[in-house]
Amino acid sequence: MQLQNSPVQRVCFEGRTFYLKRDDLLHPIFGGNKARKLYYFFTASLPIKQVVSYGSLQSNAMCAIAALAKMRGWKFLYYARINQKLLQNPRGNLACALAYGMELKDIAQMPESDRRSILSETRIEKGCLFIPEGARCQEARVGVARLAQEIKRWAIRRDIVVFLPSGTGTTALFLQKELQRSGIVVMTTPCVGDRQYLKEQFFTLEPDERFHPTIIDPPKRYRFAKLYPELFSLWQRLAKETGVVFDLLYDPIGFAALLHHDLLAQNLLYIHQGGVLGSVTMEERYKKKFATIS
Ligand SMILES: *Cc1c(COP(=O)(O)O)cnc(C)c1O
């Protein structure tokens, strides 16, 4: 399986044209930035029988790891705070990960030894691969470097700025590191925590600030995964005008920031990082909370 050369298209939104790299279309079940971040484990020959990770029950990383484990014939054990209601009627990422054979355990059952292994970095121990929440790891660099290669090849003779919204900031950081020498600027906006938090995340992966992406602030502080009618409306307008379905956690904040700073323009390459399966449950939450939204 190739896992490369996701298409780039020109799109128009609110009268502005920009480029969109469809990394969400990288692979039918293993796309988006989690696939880039996990690429190393997708190809490397490693003595692994089982993967262990933890995080939320709706996480895009969970679903990507489940797909990875399925394709590689590994078992997958995932620790989360169990929500019986979600489990009775699994949707989106959870339904997908369970279909790929993920085994779920309550976080309270996680042995102390695993807890230590899992929190900070990836580790292989007795045939077991531990992946930190959100796949924040050094190995992500391998797959993100391939994304950078594709961007460089595409951007020849174009003066471009790359933009992508950040969670842990791993993707943006490694992208900027790889594109630095080509003089390509990577911009991002924090969707989890604020500018300060994101900066700290960058420092844990790269002490040299020259390789850090440029951070732009969203128009206001959005709390991660909280519901904001204006973000939902932006997400709906994006789908309608561009014909592309975006993720509902990160992308609306990304576009809100771009519009706020008036950065949507010809020279912008926006990276669609997938996560659309996670939008299913977000959309349900929006419609339930704001009954007037259709
Ligand atoms: C995980 C994810 C992000 C954030 O990626 P980081 O590398 O943690 O910054 C952004 N968008 C989507 C759709 C994601 O699934």
Task: Outline the low-pLDDT stretches.
Answer: none
Taking the alpha carbons of the first and last residues, their distance comes to 39 Å
Q: Which overall shape is indicated by the principal axes computed on the Cα atoms?
A: globular
> What is the helix/strand order?
EEHHEHEHHEHEEHEHEHEHHEH
Mean pLDDT: 94
Major sheet details? 6 strands, mixed
Entry keywords:
alpha/beta, 6-stranded mixed β-sheet, binds pyridoxal-5'-phosphate, 5-stranded mixed β-sheet, 294 residues, 12 helices, 11 strands
Describe this protein's structure.
With 294 residues, the protein is an alpha/beta fold. The chain is 41% helix and 17% strand. It contains twelve helices and eleven strands. The chain has helices at residues 32-37, 39-43, 60-72, 84-88, 92-99, 112-120, 140-155, 170-179, 195-205, 229-242, 251-260, 276-289; strands at residues 8-13, 16-22, 50-54, 75-80, 103-106, 123-125, 128-131, 161-163, 185-188, 214-215, 268-272. It has a six-stranded mixed sheet, sandwiched between helices. Strand 6 and strand 7 (128-131) form a beta hairpin. The chain starts with 7 loop residues before the first strand and ends in a 5-residue tail after the last helix. The relative contact order is 0.16. The model has no long low-confidence stretch (mean pLDDT 94). Pyridoxal-5'-phosphate (PLP) is lined by residues 32-34, 60, 134, 165-172, 247, 250, 273-275.
